[in-house]
Design a protein that fits this description.
Elements: H1 2-38, H2 44-47, H3 53-56, E1 62-63, E2 87-88, E3 92-97, H4 104-111, H5 115-124, E4 134-135, E5 139-147, E6 150-159, E7 164-171, E8 174-181, E9 185-194, H6 199-205, H7 210-220, E10 235-244, E11 250-253, E12 258-263, E13 266-274, E14 279-282, H8 308-311, E15 324-327, E16 333-335, E17 340-347, E18 353-358, E19 363-373, E20 382-383, E21 388-392, E22 402-409, E23 412-414, H9 429-451
Bound molecules: zinc ion (ZN).
Length: 452
């Protein structure tokens, strides 16, 4: 009897102990998860990764509309009679420019395609092309013929990228879709010039296009502070391949193979090295030139002054002003200087609209006085180097549109211009052999082109 009661008490005791240990374990586990969530570590390997096409995304404004919502609105559409056909042989041809707010259905409607056919065209091809991806300013060619109410001829073409064209036509009452490659011609271009007022102006003076200029500035924005590091008399050199269509129009430039920019008289030389795994720039010794953080985290071609220190004496880092200012027109895209996680996004006193990105356990960057943030960007979101995070403005304590940029090391703002950032990968022995040979051939090409 006594032994029985004793066992029951012991049993209850152990039950309570094990339940409380279990509860303790659960809450500890939860606590650990919280710690892990807020301390996302980014390895240096990870943030040296760099993807050039991302920088091009802001060149064009994309209209993205839900395909299911492409209901044709009857009112306010331009009457077809206001458009004059380009040619009428046996069919009518229209070239329609895409305007803001347009969608594919509206464009077909403008050309005079009726609602049912328009629906068939879009629905039938939605596995071949996402019709919500059309760009303002692009043109769509539409030719068609109705016999009575029946569509008997159709030929739609839309150039969806520099190298591809979407073709839709009618064959035996069946709508056919294809995406064809446009044949392009290649031309190697070498250009050099001396900077009088700004790199931008010097490149324009050499007849280089906006795309080439932005590409050059983007590549150097890891190493160069474009507001402060370029002086009169500095030089640039660039070698790149341009792709032209049969009309002679440049539709694409390849990543430049060689770039040189003098910054305060010191040359920075970049050679492109392509392998199966990466496509990056290296100096002549095979040292990677892609940095973990950018010195100019903004579209540098739009900076208001060429060599800022003399024109903007108040802009720049000093003991009182713990950041760098980049004066640029309102609306200029601002880039994430490196890969990281959004730690703060919102209004922040005198900083106005402000974003802070945490890159690793040591570095953070902050961006202030923004006009607006990139839509859909939230605290905790991961961003990649070069992603657009917002736009230049003058919110908070600011006298005019500019980006106030801070690099924060161990929670203290530091002077970005004196910062030595870790650079990207270096080439290994086998890669160096190929690389040296590439440089040799490249230099010969340049010499022959300079003679011309
Ligand atoms: Zn500032």
């Amino acid at each position: 009897m006594f032994a029985k009661r004793f066992n029951w008490k012991i049993g209850l005791f152990f039950l309570i102990i094990s339940i409380s240990f279990h509860l303790l374990y659960l809450s500890y586990n939860n606590y650990q998860n919280i710690i892990l969530d807020s301390a996302i570590e980014i390895t240096s390997d990870n943030y040296n990764y760099f993807e050039p096409p991302r920088f091009r995304e802001y060149y064009q404004e994309i209209i993205v509309e839900d395909i299911d919502n492409q209901v044709i609105i009857e009112d306010k559409l331009e009457d077809k009679s206001s458009l004059v056909p380009i040619k009428t042989i046996d069919y009518e041809t229209y070239i329609i420019e895409i305007k803001k707010g347009d969608n594919f259905a509206k464009i077909l409607k403008k050309a005079g395609i009726n609602n049912n056919d328009s629906n068939d065209i879009i629905m039938g091809g939605k596995n071949i092309y996402n019709f919500s991806k059309i760009y303002v300013g692009d043109k769509i060619n539409i030719s068609y013929k109705y016999e009575g109410k029946k569509l008997t001829f159709l030929d739609i073409s839309y150039q969806i990228s520099e190298e591809k064209i979407l073709i839709i036509n009618l064959d035996n009452n069946k709508i056919n879709y294809s995406i064809d490659k446009i044949k392009l011609n290649s031309e190697l271009v070498y250009s050099e010039g001396i900077i009088e007022t700004s790199l931008y102006k010097a490149m324009v003076d050499q007849g280089l296009s906006q795309i080439v200029i932005e590409e050059m500035i983007r590549i150097f924005s890891f190493d160069v502070d474009f507001q402060r590091d370029i002086y009169k008399g500095d030089k640039f050199k660039i070698l790149f391949t341009k792709k032209t269509n049969d009309d002679g129009k440049t539709v694409k430039i390849e990543d430049p193979e060689y770039l040189e920019l003098y910054s305060r008289g010191t040359p920075l030389t970049y050679y492109l090295f392509k392998s199966d795994d990466f496509n990056e720039y290296f100096d002549e010794k095979g040292k990677g030139m892609t940095k973990s953080l950018m010195k100019t985290p903004i579209n540098g071609s739009r900076l208001s002054s060429g060599y800022g220190m003399r024109k903007h004496p108040i802009l720049g880092y000093d003991k009182l002003h713990k950041g760098l200012d980049f004066a640029a027109p309102s609306g200029t895209p601002i880039f994430a200087a490196g890969n990281g996680v959004i730690e703060y996004i919102g209004r922040n006193g005198g900083y106005g609209k402000y974003i802070r990105i945490r890159h690793d356990s040591t570095y953070k960057t902050a961006y202030a006085h923004m006009k607006s943030f990139k839509k859909g960007l939230n605290k905790g979101d991961r961003v990649k180097q070069g992603d657009v995070i917002g736009y230049v403005g003058s919110t908070g304590r600011s006298t005019g549109p500019h980006l106030h940029y801070e690099i924060i090391k161990n929670n203290v703002q530091i002077n970005p211009s004196t910062l030595k950032l870790p650079s990207g990968r270096n080439l290994n022995k086998e890669e160096m052999v190929i690389f040296k040979n590439n440089i040799y051939e490249l230099n010969n090409k340049i010499i022959s082109m300079q003679v011309d």
